Amino acid sequence: TTKIHPSPISRNSIHQPSTITMKLSLAALCFAVVDQTQAWSSLNNNNNNVKTTATTGLADSRRAFFEKAAALATAVVAPQAAQAYAVPDLPYPFEALEPFIDTPTMKIHHDKHHATYVANINKATEGKDEVPVLDLMESAIEAGPAVRNNGGGHYNHAFFWSEMMPADAAAKTKPSDQLQSLIDKSFGSTDEMKAAFEAKAAPGATFGSGWVWVVVNQAGDELKVVNTPNQDNPLMKGAIEDGIMFPILGLDVWEHAYYLKYQNRRPEYVSNWWNVVNWDKVSENCAYVVENHAGVPVQG
Fold first, then answer.
1. What is the dihedral of CA 102, 105, 106, 107, to 10 degrees?
2. Which are the contacts of 78, defined by CB distance < 8 A and separation ≥ 6?
3. What is the chain's mean pLDDT, rounded?
4. How far apart are alpha carbons 196 and 187 in whole angstroms?
5. How wide is the angle at C-alpha 114 spanned by C-alphas 231 and 245, nearest 5°?
6. Helices within 140-265 (DSSP H only)
């Protein structure tokens, strides 16, 4: 049975109680305090000769009860701060992309790196209206480093996880007729598209940290291969020279994405990565972009 690994931050675990729930909880708390106080009063009346140590213990118990009651009341009255964004669960086990992407890299990449971007974008947007992370992308550069780096990091990684699958299943997928037609029109063939992608992903072309993308143009009738530095993506205004374009396929070429297995051999990582690309998902992305002239929504 396929295991789905939960994310370190789960939206489902974070909620704000309704007004009715708060009132009922407070009422129950009050009744509990009254009942407990009456019990203590009865206990005191029936045990006037109890020893001092017992009295001290009873006082300590009462103090502990009221401290817990106060904490509960605070938790009920003051709802937890909502977390707008969450790390989506992987749609496959950590080890599913072996041997092309190793298990330790997947664990660290998903549970540490991606989780850090999510925690930081939640801090950066605290107190603001909650919107899908996709909606932050167009103005991310203008919004400043916190949104640009962390909002971009969250969107890019959520997009990245969704386009991959185990190699044996990936081998059974292929570009849709629509996508294949655009590939042939734009590059000549799938092999030529992959060659252009790998050239753009090479260290000399994408120096340091960044991403490489296959994007659809604004008109929806042509594909291009582009790269972006750091956590930028082509949805951000000003990220690439040709203006906003819509990713349908993207690869993380930061060292944290491959270094444990490949060290300085980035080209080997890039060429091996094709083995886990889910072309059905890429085709789905393409269809969405062509129809809507908009970026692909992501989970989290």
1. 120
2. none
3. 83
4. 8
5. 35
6. 140-143, 145, 152-162, 167-170, 177-187, 190-201, 259-262
The per-residue pLDDT for range 39-60, each reduced to its tens digit, is 434 434 444 444 444 444 544 5
Q: Which residue has the tokens 């509990």?
A: 32
Q: First vs last Cα of the chain: how many Å apart?
A: 24
Burial 213-243 (b: 16+ CB within 10 A, else e): bbbbbeeeeebbbbbbebbbbbbbeebbeee
pLDDT of residue 64: 56
Q: Where are the alpha helices (DSSP H) in 188-263?
A: 190-201, 259-262
Label the pairing between strands 246-252 and 210-216. Answer: antiparallel
Q: How many CB atoms within 10 Å of residue 52? A: 7
Q: Which residues lie across from 229 on neighbouring strands?
A: 210
- With 0-12 / 13-18 / 19 or more C-beta atoms within 10 angstroms meaning exposed / middle / buried, residue 255 is middle
What CA–CA distance (Å, rounded) separates 206 from 108? 23
- Separation CA 71–CA 55 (nearest Å): 24
Enter the DSSP assignment of 164. B
Q: Give CA torsion, residues 134, 135, 138, 143, to 10 deg.
A: -110
Answering whether pTM is above 0.90, one says no
**Residue of 143, 149, 109 whose CA lies nearest to 256:** 109
